[in-house]
Amino acid sequence: MKRYIILFTILPLLLLNYFMYKNITKNISSVFIDESVIISQTLDETSSSIFRLLEINEQLYIEDRMQIVYSFSINALLNAYSRADLMIRFDIDDIVIFHNNNEIIKSVKNYNINYSIVKSDSVFMNKGCLIIVRNYSSYRVFFIFRMSNITSERDTLNFRSFLKKIRDKTSIKYFILQDEKGIIAATGNISKISTIESDTFLKKSLLDNEFHHRFIVFNGSQSLEVTKRVEHNIEEIYLMRICYDTKDYFVSIRKVNIVFLISSFLIVIIICLLYLIIIGSGKLKKIEYENVFNKEIIINLFNNINSPVIIFNDKLNIILRNYKADNILQGLGENRLKNIIKEISNKKEYKINNRIFDILLSDIIIKEENKRYKLAMFIDQTDQLKIRALEEELRSNKQMEAFVSEFAHQVKNPLNAISMSIQRIVQKNEIDKNLIKIIDDEIVILNSKVSNFLLNIRNKRKVSCINDIIADVCKLYSTEIAENNIILTCYLSDNPLYSRIERDELSDAIKNLIKNAIEALSNCIKKEKKLDIKLTEKGKHAEITVTDNGIAIDENKIGHIFDKFYSSKENGTGIGLYTVKRVIESYGGNIDVKITDSGLKLFIIRLNLVI
């Protein structure tokens, strides 16, 4: 155990030291890379300026050559000695003279250029050459300058000297401007530089305008290469590659590594020394027990425990007990108590002297004496069990109260239907057979509800046809719906759908939804008041939808409409929708309400089908 304490002490400290080491090395790398990127940004901005200067210089070169060319006379050009002198003085690579019949009169070199297509004065670049065309009265002359001559003019910008100064004043090993064809400009030993085509990292660097970096081995030493895409113009895209010496960076990393190793070693040494000091000076003295169970001490200790406690030896003979254990022995006897301790693994709750006890059994092993004892503690659960029974009875009474309240609400609907029918008979002052039929049907339903009340108590459930239930409810409310100028649409599935639910309970749930819809429609002002009732089969479920376009439900209240005693009506009881939800869920179904964008209310009941 002591070895584990050392291990659990050293490991967190070493982990903390390691995380500090990783954080420091990460910061050093970040600083070095950031500094290199800042230098690269400066060089990137400088290279853009150089390209602009080169472009201006190139344009000046062309304009200068055009002025020189237009100063030549045709006679000087036709004279061989004069033409050679002009070519040497003005770095002209070749002068090609055509007669008007396209016959070449003079040419020194063959550039394989189609001269015949150029008719007028012009300036153009072709195959690495600058070509200036001038027309004379009977001749057309092509002055050809090689790009090497133009490049020599670039040298006036001292580009190579500029790159060399950059390398000498910084830790840069090389600076390269490179495209997919090859190197445009460079300084440093670049004999082993990779091409863009052969290097995946360089290909990716050309895809965006961000700085990229990687550690490489250059000339046998670790280096950092920073790359960035450089756009001279739309057609000319280069890759700037800058290699930095990482000597100082790796010296710093090595110093951090050494500090990490030394600190880790010191942590281990210090913890081990502390352990030796603590163990050496504060080592626990072993207590030589003359008697493991010193009865005077143990009895005083046990007598302060509120529960009966008994200690047995390996033969289950009682060797020690507190005074509260006397009642246990008197009620059971020692032999019966031994049998209980033997069978304790199968049963833990026992009735002793009209009290219920839980017995907690624990083994006590004395290694020095190679002895085993059993400690039994008797926890009196009688009062706790009585409290639980009272709580269960109270919960059952509340459930019965809710059930009776719901039953009363269910009985209210048939009574209302009977009352309404009787009122219509009195108003018409004549006997209407349809109304008499409704009264008779509702009396049958009322009688059925009383029977179902008893059946529900016994948890008996029947299989009912949902199609028939909905059809009967629609027929019942047809007169009231017509009187309120409501358009009723009742769609039932082609195949009868059956669910394990009491007919009257589902009927009452649908009646409740239709009754609420009629009230919402009768209180609204609309040209067309619509009430749609739909029954469809959805896999293993039947789905009943009751939809109306009456007064909408407030979105802030929609989450509470199924709460018990919650009602938005002035004289509402808050029992109706709560009862509908409880009944549907008691049969394994569910009910939901939705408000469409057009303001329609949808109550959706889903019930399990009996297949």
From TrEMBL:
Source organism per UniProt: candidate division TA06 bacterium
Pfam families in alphabetical order: HATPase_c
Domain Histidine kinase: 406-611
PANTHER family: HYBRID SIGNAL TRANSDUCTION HISTIDINE KINASE C, TWO-COMPONENT HISTIDINE KINASE
Keywords: Membrane, Phosphoprotein, Transmembrane, Transmembrane helix
PROSITE patterns associated with the record: HIS_KIN
UniProt KW Membrane keyword: yes
One GO molecular-function entry: phosphorelay sensor kinase activity
SUPFAM superfamilies in UniProt: ATPase domain of HSP90 chaperone/DNA topoisomerase II/histidine kinase, Homodimeric domain of signal transducing histidine kinase
Segments traversing the membrane: 5-21, 258-278
Annotated catalysed reactions: ATP + protein L-histidine = ADP + protein N-phospho-L-histidine
Lineage top rank: taxon: Bacteria
Name used for this protein in its record: histidine kinase
